[in-house]
Amino acid sequence: MKALLTSGVLALAFTLFLTPLFIKLFHKLEWGQFIRDDGPKSHHSKRGTATMGGLVVIAGVLFGYFGGLLSDGVKPTASGLLVLFMMGGLGIVGFIDDFLKTHKQQSLGLGGWAKVLGQVIVAGTFAVLALQFPSKTGLTPASTNISLIRDIQFLDFMKLGTIVGIGLFILWICVITVATSNGVNVTDGLDGLATGASIVAIGSYVIIGFWQAQQLCSAAGIDPDNVYKCYEVRDPFDLAIVATAIAGALVGFLWWNTSPAQIFLGDTGSLALGGALAALAVLSRTELLVIVIGGLFVIEAGSVIVQRAYFKVTHGKRIFLMSPIHHHFELKGWAEVTVVVRFWIVAGLLVAAGVGSFYLEWLSQ
Fold first, then answer.
1. Any domain includes 328
2. Using CB atoms within 10 A as the burial measure, which of 71, 81, 259, 327 is most buried?
3. Domain span holding position 286
4. DSSP label at 36?
5. CA 205 to chain CA mean position, Å
6. Binding-site entries for Mg(2+)
7. Helix axis angle, 266-283 to 78-104, nearest 10°
8. Is the Cα torsion angle 149, 297, 201, 348 positive or negative in sign?
9. Domain count, the chain
10. How far, in Å, CA of 78 to CA of 134, rounded?
11. Which ranges of the chain does DSSP label H, i.e. alpha helix?
């Protein structure tokens, strides 16, 4: 418990007190935000605002996570390190994208397919590693089953054979990762929007990880024959510690990222956060539940997909004034702060629904 609390406090303190130093550094390096010309006119005043704030968040998470473990004399687990690998790997992809934008002074860094390729490489490597490092009981960080609130026993890729099963498992992890990371990425368009939504989404895994740790099938007093009353997760408490460090780092960062933002997450941060969310879902066996927990990101990404599809089918017509959908409400006259707070409320309600479903499933057994 000490590691859990300490990790969040250290991560929060890091980003809260050190972000101003990073802002000065990023301005000196001329890492300023480039604003697209076709966006809302009110956003043009944000040109030059420090970006790549994801570097601050990632540094804060590392400081909080390892500091929390050190304070309690606990060693990191394979599951915790895998979340950090996914977060850091996608952070590198985002950093390359951000660096190209600031260097070229244009809104496009990496091409769309180049960015997806980077995400797939990181996710594929994560998938392979997640099937390694078995515990003393033979439990690996990830399983080859598709999961909702726990593994769905009849949806096991390995039933199709080892080679096909592993291939489909890697593909499945890539789909989840690309979807979540791009979902957070498109949400990161208003001051504090993606940061606040990520706090509640990733923060939910503090609750889920802690609860799973108390109800492990291998724990004393738990009936291992009742697989619907306990959880087969390798390192749930360490996942809760990682989630606490990420949420804490984001809370401290939000102080400087809220309107008017002095620093943006950039693709460095948004892709990293989406990757962390995907990793937490996979390793906690809640892959499909993340659709609800990260529901705001689903809505945001969905609005882009629907807008583009409708535009092509109707040869130029639009459903929304602009996508992602938060820009639609801006162009309808909502103040930026109003859009952000209302979207935070939506994100919070969806997270509550997801966590509530998680607990009710256990209660119903």
1. no
2. 327
3. 2-291
4. P
5. 11
6. 185, 267
7. 160
8. negative
9. 1
10. 9
11. 2-28, 54-71, 78-104, 112-130, 162-187, 193-214, 236-257, 266-283, 290-293, 295-313, 325-331, 336-364
335 lies in some domain = no
Reply yes or no: is the peptide bond before residue 260 cis, omega within 30 of 0. Answer: yes
pLDDT at 35: 60
pLDDT, tens digit, 9 for 90 and up, residues 23-52? 999 999 888 776 655 555 555 456 668 889
Cis peptide leading into 324, omega within 30 of 0?
Answer: yes
Q: Is the whole-model pTM more than 0.90?
A: yes
Residue 306 lies inside a defined structural domain of this protein? no
Evaluate whether residue 19 is within a structural domain: yes
Contact residues for 357 (Cβ-Cβ < 8 A; gap 6+)? 149, 289, 292
Are 357 and 149 a contacting pair, CB within 8 Å?
yes
Nearest to 289 by CA among 355, 243, 203: 355
CA atoms within 13 A on the CB side of 19: 29
At residue 311, the 3 state secondary structure works out as: helix
